[in-house]
Amino acid sequence: MIEQLEEKFTKYEIARILGARALQIAMDAPLLLKIPEAELESFNYNPIEIAKRELLADVLPITVNRPMPKKKEEKLKIVSREEVEELKKRVEKVSEEREKQAEKEIEEETGKEAPIHSAEIKDDKVLEKREEKEEGKVSEDAEIMELANPEDESEAELEEVGEED
Asked: How far apart are CA 103 and CA 117, in angstroms?
């Protein structure tokens, strides 16, 4: 009997359907199948047996929703060789513009002409000058705090204690 159902449902789905319907029958839900009184007495009005008979008769209004993986339909655009070449040219233009902008920044900071390829700066003197200028700006803009020594702190505490007396 149940082998017929296993073609449609899994054993877990069958158990869930039978359990749900048996609970409904136990709570005095009306029977969907006309079963003779003698037959009901033969299996002692067992709600699970009644649910099995209803399921086999295919009269249950219970549906099973099986979660399936989402199928994504993405249409891939076929790109021609001309479009690929056009994209390569755009990428080259953007990289050239970035390189020119980097060269201008170097010229403004150092006052010298930037090397041919700003990404490949080999002259350490340019870098050293840039660092010196940045350090000069920092020292002009703000005070550089010295690190505190433990001896200085203990002397300051002693002075404060002496002033309180």
From this structure: 8
What digits encode the pLDDT tens for the residues 135-165?
A: 776 666 555 555 666 666 666 666 666 665 5
Q: Are 20 and 60 in contact (CB under 8 A)?
A: no
CA 110 from chain centre, in angstroms, equals 44
- Sign (positive/negative) of CA torsion 95, 100, 103, 109? negative
Residue ranges per structural domain of the chain = 2-56, 82-141
C-alpha to C-alpha distance for 46 and 58, rounded to whole angstroms: 19
CATH class of 2-56: alpha beta
pTM attached to this predicted model: 0.42
- Neighbour count for residue 49 (Cβ, 10 Å): 18
Q: Please write the tens of the pLDDT for every residue from 38-48.
A: 999 999 999 99
Q: Which tens digit of pLDDT belongs to each residue from 46-82?
A: 999 999 999 988 888 888 887 777 765 555 556 667 7
Identify each DSSP E strand in 53-98 by its residue range.
none
Kindly list the distances between the CA atom of residue 118 and the CA atoms of 31, 96, 110, 130, 157, in Å, as whole numbers in the listed order: 86, 11, 13, 14, 54
